[in-house]
Write a structure and sequence with these properties.
This protein has 18 helices and ten strands. With 416 residues, the protein is of the alpha/beta class. 47% of the residues are buried. The longest helix has 21 residues.
Length: 416
């Protein structure tokens, strides 16, 4: 079995982590190690794996968790993971995560200022619009720039949001901002998956277009309600409402419910009686709820042959509420339709594991930043959106890039 050390500058792990792991695993296994062969094939057992974790902790500090030995099961994968988390580098290093906003952040004319004044953003939004056009039959750019209120119709909302978020992320990347991890809220997971390398732009365009169209054709009468209830309180409130589900858990006391409007009204009365506030959201359907089930089989059939892949950038799943190391194939996107958005769990895992300095909300207006700021306060994280609202323009984008110190960031992360 011949060792094969990676040579591509973009793929090569930090040399120190790679060499150290090769030495330690050779010690534990008693024979040479191929950096691309899973540890399990060498017979690495749980005792040796935990010992290796202890060695990593002693040598490098908190760069790994015990489960990472199995989540990143080759020397190359584990070394790359350790390098991405390593904060024992220049104090000037910026470690930024991209967090992609979900449905509800859209508005007529969103990002028009960016489109008109940023050549890079305009190029990427046009690129995404062309990939979507076979499905939408009109340009989402025209829809956005015209201020068309149809942007609130799910069949247009989801493709338009995807295009905006894809273009925003690519514009930051062009400036040298390389995210060390990504996370997406609901429809935001699709742009996150493209940036992570798990979906192509073409495949994501098809997915979001079908998803939005199938959802829009569901019967009306569903709604969503933001509450100040904790998840366990929300679960008790919906126990007698089988068509109501927990749609999202955004923070410890920020739970979104989805289901028939009349059922949500009953729950709102119960919440009020307990002194808990609630607010109906401006949506036409009950996303991430049992009312989405009638479209699941059709969606699964339409996308079952769609290829996907393992994220190359750490992808924090709001379906699982953790780092996803599994391939993001069609079954994942099908499960996502009805699964609660476990944003709080995913964000906490992201903060705990990635040693971040900055978190950038990617979307047409700030929605998740307040939650991110509260969760990241103890770690001293800088959390901010690319677009604060309808008037954001290229000047705001330049400010974000400056805050992220994009030039040095690109140089540092290229070594990983």
């Amino acid at each position: 079995m011949q060792n094969s050390v990676p040579t591509s500058p973009d793929d090569r792990p930090e040399h120190v982590h790679f060499e150290w792991l090769m030495q330690r695993l050779t010690h534990y296994l008693g024979r040479p190690v191929d950096p691309d062969v899973p540890f399990a094939e060498y017979g690495l057992d749980s005792v040796a794996a935990l010992s290796l974790y202890g060695d990593i902790e002693e040598e490098f500090g908190p760069l790994a968790e015990p489960g990472d030995i199995w989540s990143y099961p080759t020397v190359n994968q584990l070394a790359r993971c350790m390098a991405q988390r390593d904060v024992l580098v220049s104090a000037e290093r910026v470690r930024a995560a991209f967090v992609f906003t979900g449905q509800g952040s859209q508005h007529p004319g969103m990002t028009s200022g960016l489109y008109l004044n940023s050549t890079g953003y305009r190029s990427h939004l046009d690129e995404a619009a062309e990939e979507l056009r076979p499905y939408t039959k009109e340009s989402v750019v025209d829809l956005i720039l015209s201020g068309d209120p149809r942007v609130h119709l799910t069949g247009f909302t989801q493709p338009a949001l995807f295009a905006v978020e894809y273009a925003m992320a690519r514009t930051l990347q062009d400036a040298g901002v390389r995210p060390v991890a990504v996370l997406g809220h609901g429809i935001g997971e699709f742009a996150a998956a493209v940036v992570a390398g798990a979906l192509t732009l073409q495949d994501a365009a098809r997915l979001v277009s079908l998803r939005g169209a199938f959802m829009q054709h569901l019967p009306m009468g569903g709604g969503m309600m933001a509450t100040c209830a904790a998840p366990f309180e929300a679960a008790e409130l919906i126990a007698d409402e089988p068509e109501v589900g927990i749609a999202a858990i955004n923070a410890a006391r920020a739970t979104v419910l989805a289901g028939p409007v009349d059922a949500l009204a009953r729950i709102a009365d119960r919440l009020s009686g307990q002194g808990l506030a609630s607010r109906m959201l401006e949506v036409a359907h009950a996303f991430h709820s049992p009312l989405m089930r009638p479209m699941v089989a059709k969606f699964a059939s339409a996308v079952r042959r769609l290829p996907g892949g393992v994220p190359r950038v750490p992808f924090y799943s709001t379906v699982y509420g953790r780092l996803a190391t599994e391939p993001l194939y069609a079954p994942y996107w099908t499960e996502q339709v009805t699964a609660p958005v476990r944003f709080a769990d995913a964000a906490r895992a992201l903060f705990a594991q990635q040693s971040l300095t900055h978190v950038v909300e990617i979307g047409p207006r700030a929605v998740l930043t307040p939650f991110l700021n509260r969760m990241g306060a103890d770690a001293g994280l800088h959390c901010f959106p690319v677009c604060r609202g309808p008037r954001s323009d290229a000047v705001d984008l330049a400010g974000v890039i400056s805050t992220l110190d994009a030039g040095p960031l690109a140089a540092v992360l290229a070594r990983g």
